[in-house]
């Protein structure tokens, strides 16, 4: 059935698009585009392998899905320190990943769990 699929997008329900945009664009440094002209506005964040879509309005947020950012070429400790400076909640500090790399988990403003991963 599914053999090595590529994830094209992840859709999230968020409480506040402005706050979400600030987090992904202002703190994480990703480019975020607010799209309107549809039934409701939504935020699109393009990454190298995936599109993230954020729709405002659902009252209840959840802790899934978890998005993993591959951060080879960056210092994971410095990135986590930068998150702490912005009062981002760190769920799991930098720790060894099962494959010998490093990982750290944190939350975005709506409680979604995100993770940094650095390969061995």
TrEMBL record:
Q: Which residues form a coiled coil?
A: none
- SUPFAM superfamilies referenced in this protein's UniProt entry, alphabetically: Glyoxalase/Bleomycin resistance protein/Dihydroxybiphenyl dioxygenase
The family database entries (Gene3D superfamilies) matched by this protein are listed as:
2,3-Dihydroxybiphenyl 1,2-Dioxygenase, domain 1
**Which residues does the UniProt record annotate as the domain VOC?**
6-119
- Cited InterPro entries: Glyas_Bleomycin-R_OHBP_Dase, Glyas_Fos-R_dOase_dom, VOC_core
For this entry, the protein name equals VOC domain-containing protein
């Amino acid at each position: 059935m599914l053999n090595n699929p590529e994830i094209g997008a992840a859709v999230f329900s968020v409480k506040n698009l402005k706050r979400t945009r600030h987090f992904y664009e202002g703190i994480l440094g990703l480019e975020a585009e607010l799209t309107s002209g549809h039934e409701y506005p939504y935020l699109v964040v393009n990454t190298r392998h995936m599109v993230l879509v954020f729709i405002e309005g659902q009252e209840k947020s959840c802790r899934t899905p978890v998005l993993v950012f591959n951060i080879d070429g960056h210092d994971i400790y410095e990135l986590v320190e930068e998150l702490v400076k912005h009062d981002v909640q760190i769920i799991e500090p930098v720790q060894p990943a099962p494959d010998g790399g490093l990982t750290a988990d944190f939350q975005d403003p709506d409680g979604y769990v995100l993770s940094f991963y650095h390969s061995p």
